[in-house]
Amino acid sequence: MSVIISLSIFPIDKGESVCSYVARAIKIIKESGLEYDFGPMSTSMEGEWDDVMAVVNRCFEDLKKDCDRIYLNISADYRKGAPGRIKRKVVSVQKKIEPQ
């Protein structure tokens, strides 16, 4: 069983560029050991629900230390079955759009 989430988290009280805050969250995600994929607008993670939500909470708690206002958006896809969907889903779509 696994959940894949798409997470966007950043402060909205720190000016125009918030990449250093995003980097802090990505570092927490990377260090968690969960499968993840970092993108320009969000980061996807896959794992067991409690493990993934614990990482989201660590990201939030880290930014909360010095940010007064934080934007956080999560979408989730939970599915019973084997893990590894974070890569398989992309490969499946790529096969359908690439010429045979």
Number of separate structural domains = 1
The CATH class assignment is: Alpha Beta
Q: What's the tally of helices?
A: 3
What composes the largest sheet? 4 strands, antiparallel
Family: Belongs to the UPF0045 family.
InterPro entries: MTH1187/YkoF-like, Thiamine_BP, UPF0045_domain
Domain Thiamine-binding protein: 6-94
GO cellular component, one term: cytosol
Walk me through the structure.
The protein is an alpha+beta fold and 100 residues long. It has a single domain (2-97), classed as Alpha-Beta Plaits. Helix content is 43%, strand content 29%. The chain contains three helices and four strands. It has helices spanning 19-32, 49-64, 85-97, and strands at residues 2-11, 35-38, 43-47, 70-79. It has a four-stranded antiparallel β-sheet. Strand 2 and strand 3 (43-47) form a beta hairpin. The chain is globular. The mean pLDDT is 94.
